[in-house]
Amino acid sequence: MTTEDIEVWMVEEPSRRHEPEASHDGIVQSAVSQPLPMITEDEAMRATYLLGDFGSAQPLELHNDNTVIPILLRPLEIYLGAKWDLPADIWTFGCLVFELVTAEHLFVHERNQKFDLDETENMLYQMMLYSREDFSGAQLQASPKAPEYFNADCKCRNTSTLKKNPKLFGGSIQTRFDEMKIISDEDATETTRLMERCLCLDPSHRSTATELLSDPWFDGVE
Q1: When comparing pLDDT for 66 and 59, which is higher?
Q2: Average pLDDT for 34-48
Q3: Quick check: keyword Cell membrane in the entry (predicted)?
Q4: Residues 81-128: tens digit of each pLDDT
Q5: Each residue of 55-89: b (16+ CB within 10 Å) or e?
Q6: Domain that holds residue 41
Q7: Same structural domain, 201 and 118
Q8: Domain total for the chain?
């Protein structure tokens, strides 16, 4: 469909049109609330797709840690109130890769009854499991909310543990793929390696978007 086709269609079926809504930087104009007419299977196979979701996006300079990035895709620096930048999107991409491959979330935002962890503590716990890394003392010192979740001695140690000290075992990205058995072992290994480049606890250790494009996972993609 062309832009003109969409405009004509919206005029013909005004019930699908939203009223303009207020935004932080102006007014969001009318949007379509229902799917556009489906294209044929042949057209779908030849189409070019752009995947995007800006529901929690905001201008970089605002750095509002309360709303940026959906909660299950949110990196640790936002949970801990630390400064964030472009590597936050790389973390989110790593989470989305898992969702696109498995149709399930990598993380769960719920209480962990076994270790008596609240939702945020459990998210931080899962991050340590899947990254197979520890939070560094320097990283926690730069995180205003870290004292809520981590031992007070994080200022004098290279690494620190959660206050409730849950045992770290039985979890990795590769293990999740092995348990689900929905892709081949080779694909699971390649996908795990790509995700591990994104899901580093230290934002400076995450690959850039340009670096990720050279990953073997994208071989054959134009």
Answers
A1: 59
A2: 76
A3: no
A4: 998 889 999 999 999 999 999 999 999 999 999 999 999 999 999 999
A5: eeeeeeeeeebeebbeeebbbbbbbbebebeebbb
A6: 1-49
A7: yes
A8: 2
